[in-house]
Amino acid sequence: MSNDRDRHDGDGDHELRVSKIRDGTVIDHVRGGQALNVLAILGIDGSEGEELSIGVNVPSDRLARKDIVKVEDRELSQDEVDVLSLIAPDATINIVRDYDVVEKHRVERPDVVEGVLSCPNPGCITTGNEPVTSRFTVLEDGVRCSYCETIVRDEIASLIDT
Q1: Choosing a second label site near 60 at 20 to 30 A (CA), which of 1, 16, 77, 145?
Q2: pLDDT, tens digit, 9 for 90 and up, residues 16-71
Q3: Residue-wise over 117-146: b if at least 16 C-beta within 10 A, else e?
Q4: 15 — phi, psi (to 5°)?
């Protein structure tokens, strides 16, 4: 998205225009309706005065509908990108410096995530008072707790420890 335009030529010509950011991160090709979950993962709620641009359910040739999140003055860590990949496996991360995209890459799902999700099983050792860090194996269509084997396919975003 180096020119900040996404064209969709279907039943007419649609053009999305969102202002460029000087420095920061553009998270593009997020599945439609997931932008607010992306912000939750990043711990952004607007209370710190972050400058954001968000497009929700905008036309996309690749996904039919997509969300876009632009965060001024912030570059994502690899851990943040790994967690984002769980809810936005098709996303591209664009690093912007002085209005130019200097890095662009698609997210890659890790094999394992540790300490970023809470197990929904109340009987799991990670949900008690034990000093055990959660660990999930990333599956094609979800995640599996490495301790109790609980598989989660839906609502993964609700399990993210923010």
Answers
A1: 77
A2: 556 789 999 999 999 888 898 888 888 888 888 888 989 998 888 877 889 999 99
A3: bbbeeeebebbeeeeeebbbebeeeebbbb
A4: -135, 130
Q: In whole angstroms, how far apart are CA 161 and each of 107, 115, 119, 157?
A: 20, 8, 10, 9
User: Cα(18)–Cα(5) distance, rounded to whole angstroms?
Assistant: 7
4: Cβ contacts below 8 Å, ≥ 6 apart: 17, 18, 19, 20
pLDDT in tens, 139-154: 988 899 999 999 998 8
C-alpha–C-alpha distance, residues 7 and 13, integer Å: 7
Q: Note if the pTM is more than 0.70.
A: yes
Beta pairing partners, 104? 94
Task: Take residue 6 and report the two structure tokens written for it.
Answer: 């996404």
Exposed e or buried b per residue across 66-103, where buried means at least 16 C-beta atoms within 10 angstroms of its C-beta: bbbbbbeebebeeebbbbbbbbbbebbbbbbeeeeeee
Locate 155 and state its tokens: 């609502």
Token pair of 73, please? Answer: 């003055």
